[in-house]
Amino acid sequence: MLAKRCTFHNSASLEWIYICYFKKMELKRGFLRMSWDSYLDNLIAQTKDASGTAHADKACIIGVDGGAKWTSDGHANAFKAWQKNNQLEYQPPIKKAVQQMITSLDEKNRHHLRVLTNTAYFVGKEELAFRKFGSLCDLQEKNGVKMESMYRNEKMCSQFIASIAGVEKEKTKREVRETRFLSLLSDSSTDAGIIEQEAVFVRYVDKQGRPWTKFLDIIPLESATADGVCNTITTSLEKIDIDEEMLKKLVGCNFDGASVIMGKKSGIAVQIQEKVPQPVVILHRVAHNLELAVLNAVKTIPYLENFHKTIRQVFKLNCYSPKKRREVDAVSEILDENPAHFSIAHLEQVSSGKGEDGAKAKGILKQITTGKFARFLYFMLDVTAVLKELSESFQRAGLFITDVAKKLDTAIANLELLKNDKPPTELSKFQTKFKSSYDEEKKILLNGKNNSQEVSLKDNSKVQISLDTSECAKIAGCFKSKDFSPFMTSGIFAEGTKYQFLRVEDEKLVLGKKKEQGAISLQCSKTAVVIGHCPEGGQQGNLNKGVAVIAEYLESLGM
To answer: Which InterPro entries match (predicted)?
Structure first.
């Protein structure tokens, strides 16, 4: 037997190992191909201890008999034991090279997939079409990002996004299982395909005490009934393993105020409460509640609907017609003015023509060239500014329920301040400008840059406001003549009655009979005046039924 003796020294003992010295060694189960030098180097390298001293704990004898290569079971077992004891796994050079190549390819593929995944996430986050995925990949490659040509199509984009969604959903499942409390948020809307969809969210607190709101699902409604909506919500919850046991963590729900949701007998809120042993706080979404409150308030102001209709007509007339928009832009460019300042001038031009547009423009002009419309426009600027701030604060993600009442009280206080013009309101600024820019004789209001635009106003003093009996009595006391009380006559100064508004003269309001009834005039204080209508034979107690004020206090009108 041909063998070579190798000696390994350590501080504990002296070991002898005999290893065959030949180019090829064969075990029972396969070939072990290794040169002596490489095997010896590998053995020494793999058996060094922490101090750098090479040693061996097991002996391995492999021999030959009569020139035929053989390996005894004992020797093979000894070799395997030595490998296991030293945690070695011998790899032939070819296999090692292949594995290194695979590792290199895996790293390259991981980089490629990482770029594609980030790109697909961007497409989903920004709500872009999936067909944009390939173009975005091309752009990144042009900017120097190394990318492969595989998987750069919209089908793969949808798969990437689905995978991301799956990972996020699993993360939400894990966090919901670990949380102690959770709340449910749901709302329905109609998509572009005219299909009613229910969007479901879950809100919970993590281990660090931070609140999170996570999207669960958006699913078509089975029906718009309470049972249909409730089944849809239950299906969404089951997708993240929220069963009846998990529902015991539910402490609150947030919905809109529809009767199908908030119904006290069979609404969704009632059905959810029946599934949960503890009381659940059901809240009407505050932002939606504010919207309903404003809509209810609007119903108390009849003129507001007409005002809103006129604003929409102006918008539609110009917005959906490129030709009209070019005309407005051309006029404003010539006169160096903001296009909005020339809406009336443009409408006058359009109204002079024939056809449907001309008729529409005439109708719009009739509405917007009244003093009432102009004042109401500035009044809405003041009111909507307060409501806008309140609505946006209700829609912030970090809103606490304790902040709702405080923000609502602040908004009401700001609305109350508008009555006293503190701070100066847009309406008061307009009144000041109106007073200096309005020509009483010609009924012309100058506006625009350097007052270069003239607008003819009609019925400047008419403003519809209801007054109660005590306010009417206060106004009646302002009249100089005690012999003539407007509240004790069958007709009060309004269109269709005996008396009418004539003019302001020497700080006095001059009222008089109409021409066909003679030239009788009456003066009153400039401080306040009412021109309205009282039913025939009406008395002061009936004023709430019949009085329609068509002139505010002269001071507030800026006259």
So the answer is: PFN (IPR048278), PFN_euk (IPR005455), PFN_sf (IPR036140)
